[in-house]
Every structure is written in C-alpha cells, then in structure tokens.
Amino acid sequence: MICVALPGLAVSTDQGQLTGQGLEGIYRAGRRVLARCQVRVAGREPLVVQARMTSADRARFIGTLRVTPHGGPDPDVVIERTRSADGTERITLRSAATRPLRLPVEVALGTDLADLGAIASGTVGPELPASVHDSGLRWSGAHGASCVTATPPPADALASAGLLRWDFDVPPGGSVSVELKARLEGAGPVRPAGRAATSPVAPARATGDDPRVEPLLATSVEDLQALLVRDPAHPSDTHLAAGAPWRCGLAPAEALAAARMALPLGTRLAAGTLRVLARSQITGEGPRTGMIPGPRRDAGAHLPPSCTGTEATLLFPVLLAEARRWGLPEQDTKELLPAAERCLSWLLATVGDRPYLRDPQPGGPVRCETQAHAHRAALLGADLLDAYGRPGGGQLREWALALRAAFRQDFWTDDPGGGRPMAALTSDGRPVPQLCATTAHLLDTGLLGGGEMAPGLLDKVRTGQLVRLLASPVMDSGWGLRGLAADEAGHNPFGHRNGAVRVHETAIAVAGMAAAGHEKEAGALLRGLLAAAEAFDHRLPEMYAGEQRGEAGVPLPHPAACRPAATAAAAGVLLLTVPAGVRPDAPAGTVTLRPLPSAPLGEIVLTGLRVAGAPFSVRVSRLGLAMVEEASDGLQLGA
Fold first, then answer.
1. Residues 100-112 as b or e (16 or more Cβ within 10 Å = b)
2. Which residues form the Putative glycogen debranching enzyme N-terminal domain (predicted)?
3. How far apart, in whole angstroms, are the C-alpha atoms of residue 76 and residue 42?
4. I want to staple 265 with a disulfide (CB 3.0 to 4.6 A). Which of 202, 208, 442, 543 is the partner?
C-alpha cells in the first residue's frame, strides 16, 4: 500500500505495522525517514481487520483488541491508524467497554536513514541508535538526521529501545488519540504540488451507466496530483514523476507521454513539463544537439535497449502542437517554440537523406515505434511551424512522405493471415518479425486542426489488419495488450517487454482503434482495461502479467511495477475520453466530437475537463450521441 504526495512517500503492508522489512517506511525525497512503527496496546498488537487507501496520499488501518477479562469473544477496543505520505500518523483508540479502561500504549520506532536505491538492492545497514529529542526520538547518521515528535508527549521515552509509552484512561465509549510526525531534519514541511490550489491537474469527474468510470477517473486524477513534482530551480513549473516507489524522479519520455494523455485535464501540466525539459535540451555543436536526454530502456528479448532520449525528443514537439490545440496560451507556445524547432532540426539532421530514423548507437536497429513517433513529430511539427510562420514545415512533410513510402515497402510482410508490421529492421536490413504491442504506436497519428487526425504510416487496409492482430487472442489477454504475442518465442507473461500488459500502450491502442473507425475492437480493449482497473482498486499499475483472463480470475500484479505510475494514471484519463471523441482546436475556436456510436460504456458524463482554458463537460448517450453541456463562450461545435 503506497501513499504518495511527492516528495513524501509511505509504503506499508496491509497489516498496518511498519516493521522495517523490505520497502516499508516513511520516505522524504527518496530517503527512509522512519523504517519501523509498531504499536502495542495493553502489551499486544491489534488484529487488523481492514486496510484500505482512502486517497492517493493516505491509508487507513482498523484493528481490534479484547482487553476486558472474561468479557466474551467480542473486541472492546478499536484501534484506527491513519498514515499519510507527509510523514504524519494518527493513532486513535475507541473503547466499547462498559467500564473505564486504563490502556498502556507503546510505539516502537526505528530507522536506518537508507536511500530507496540501497533498500531496493538489499544493501542497507542496521538501524541507527536513537536519542530522546523534544517529545519523541531522533536518529542521526552519515546521510543526515530524522526525528519523530508525538502529540501528546509520551509519559516515557526509552532511547535504547526506541520506545514511546503512554498510559491512557478511557471512559466507556470514549476515545484517545496520538499523533506522530516523522520528518527529515533540515527539510521543510512536505508541500505536495498536487495538493496546492495551483495544481495544474483539473479535478474532473465521470459518471454514467458503468459504475467503474467514476472511481477510475477519480483515482487517476488523484494519482496524477500525487506524482507532481516541482522543478527546484523554477517552483512554478511542475512535471510528473514516473511512478512510486521505484521511480520518483523525472523520466523525460514518460513525463511527456503522461502529460499528453492528460491534456483533457488542462494544458498547464504540459507547459510545465515542456519548460522543464527545454532547460535540459542539449545545445552547442555535435550530432546530439537538440536532443532531450533520457536513459536507455529494456526492449525485450529480440532487440537491444532503446534510447528514451530519442522518444522524448520526438514527443516534445508533438505535445506542444497538441497542447496548443487544447488551449495552451499563445505566450507559452511561442516561448517553447524554439526548443521544439531544435528537436525537429535534430530529427532532420539525424535522418539526413535516409528514410528512417535509426537508433543512435552504432549498428542500432530501425524500430517500428520510433518511425511512428518520428512521423507524427514531423507532421505535427510542420503544422506548428507553419502556424507561426517558421521555416522547415515543407522539408518535414517531404521526409514524412518518403518515410511512409519506404515503411509500407520495408516494414510489412505478407502472409496467409493478412500480413503484419515488423517490430524492427536490423542495421543490415534483416527483419525482426515478432508481433509486439509497440506496433500500437502506428495507430497513434496525432491531432491536427479542425478535429482531423494526421495520416499514419499504414494505409487503411493495413491499419485494419493491424487492429485485427492486436485484437486477436495472442495479443489481447482480456486485461489488455501483451507486450509480445503469446505464440512468439521468448514470450513471458511477466516480461517487461516480452508479454506483460503495459497500460500505456493498451490505452494508445484503444484511442488509435477508435480514431481509425474500429470501435468494436477498441471497445473490447477498453472494457478489458476497466476490468483490470477494478481488480486493482481502480489504481492501475504501469504493467501487470499478461496471463489469459479467466472467468473468475484477476490480473496478476507485476512485482517490479510502479503503482501509482504517471503513464497508467494518465491512461485512465485517455481511456474515459475516448467514447466522447473530444477533438479541440482552440486556435480556431472549435471543438469536434467523434463519439463511438456503439457507446461501449453506455451513457457517460465527463465534467470538469478543460478546453481552451475553460471548464468543459460532455455527455455521451446510450445511442452514442455526444452533447456538450459546458464550454467556453467562444468555443463553437465543429462539423
């Protein structure tokens, strides 16, 4: 159970006690401020009967005890613990006894002040010795110091045992509380960006016939707010951390992808993300000039690791172009345009006179999804440059046209089943024929003006064939798209890229299928993800096992998955806006609706979205008809 309000984090099991085992603990900026927090009442640990997340940053544990001698089997004390990501824990004891109770309460505390990376790799040292400090305990080590203060102050504080003690007199039906606050010394109070009044994520809501849509959108919005991080040098700019607990820092490709899927919640997150990454852009001379740097990412058994910097560099102009359509202010667009131009210049300089964008390492492959990202960046980037009278749009379109022709010739193999796209071409031109979920990016062509989608790398017939392949049982697990088809050599249901379901790619497939007119297949994938979300209490992890869905089964969690994860939370927003087909063009003052006629979720009402900087609400009926219920005064419904 992971409570997140970055830079604060609390990791617990469903037993409520923090034992210091594994990842358990309270964290601040990746350091474990408190590892152990074990409560005993009348010398015994409470029996936990319920544990649940009450919000993205808070968990609640209910335990019981029977303390009255010869009082029968019923518990007469209820212990409620509320643990927050900001390091606060409130312990409340409620008596149901018919006589006054004297309840001794002990809280055993300890920490190692280890960083998250060391804990994950199993290289932490022993707990640090404690000292009595103010109304609690303090620990210090080579990496700083932390302390826990208690209200009310304890009757006894035993540093050698790391123990705080109270003796409470509780009347019949009465209650008492203790509040503990763990903090890292030298750090200010946790001020999560998502909880501020200036949060860039709009609090949208969903209601409708399907009871799952409301909690999915609510949880997705909460998780996005919890993962927001301020740029330390520019606190007004926020971006999304990749996910908790493993990746609480900036991952450029994931931050851009998540901000793009979250555009229905407003453009301020996109603007902050773009500004943060523009400051990291490589400048000067050399072949990497204009790139947004990023780490390498595992690509499965059949391909070497990929460069997320390439993906981020291609996503940058796409996000800026689409954010402008959703209503990014002109001043922000103009400010960020030079960085987008540098990304597009890097693209043209890197491909030179070749049709494909290769991996940057020597001998690197030509990946299918990289060509999809590059093609989209070229077309949306050209549209953006033209809008501001900047040169280069024609050259980008010419290259995109050449890429389309070459891709349809080289990346498609015909077979008796109708053919398929290649996963990649090796440096010497040999095909890598495996069927992967990354081909879903071929369906994501990007939004142009007037509610039109950009042309894709595949023609209409081959797009239909790709949709049929992705919707087939070897790819669709019933919970979402497997990373690698189940009948391919090397398939592993838990493989990061070899068979696990990645929520982001499945959501991209749903949106792409819907935009291409394949609503039956889009609806099936959408319902599968909704079922998975329900099994995960509507907090989707970044991935889970690609085991086939059974009648009474639930998806298997992946032990290394982040949950919450920025791309998974943003995918929840994208999924629920697909049935309405909202396609804004704020510069033209229009919004076009392309709802799914089959209404796969029945009636659905989305309120609190943002288009052109103003609240936007839309209703889709059971007949698949869409109606705008709230919008900016200057926004017209497009044809």
1. ebebebbbbbbbb
2. 10-180
3. 12
4. 202
Give the CA angle between residues 592, 598, 603 to the nearest 5°: 75
pLDDT digits (tens, 9 = 90+) for 143-171: 899 999 999 999 999 999 999 999 999 99
Backbone CA torsion sign across 154, 155, 157, 161: negative
For 293, how many CA atoms within 13 A lie in the half-sphere containing its CB?
7
Contact 66, 48 (CB under 8 A): no
Long-range CB contacts (within 8 A, 24+) of 416-424: 418/465, 418/468, 419/462, 419/465, 420/465, 420/466, 420/469, 421/368, 421/458, 421/462, 421/466, 422/368, 423/302, 423/303, 423/367, 423/368, 424/302, 424/303, 424/365, 424/366, 424/367, 424/368
Which parts of the chain have pLDDT scores under 50?
none
**Quick one: pLDDT at residue 125?**
84
**What's the CA gap between 39 and 20, in Å, rounded?**
13
Question: In this structure, how many other beta carbons lie within 10 angstroms of the beta carbon of residue 228?
Answer: 24
Specify the amino acid at residue 20.
G
- Residue 576, number of CB atoms within 10 A of its CB: 25
Closest CA to 80 of 72, 92, 98, 89: 92
Residue with tokens 């469903």: 14
pLDDT of residue 284: 86
Number of H helices, E strands in the chain: 12, 35
Secondary structure in 3-state letters for 201-235 = CCCCEEEECCCCHHHHHHHHHHHHHHCEEEECCEE
DSSP string, 385-430: HHHTT-TTHHHHHHHHHHHHHHHHHHSEE--TT--EE-SEE-TTS-
Give CA–CA dist 632/628, Å, rounded: 11
Place of tokens 């919005």: 221
Half-sphere exposure of 479 (CA within 13 A, CB side): 30
Q: What is the CA radius of gyration of the chain?
A: 27
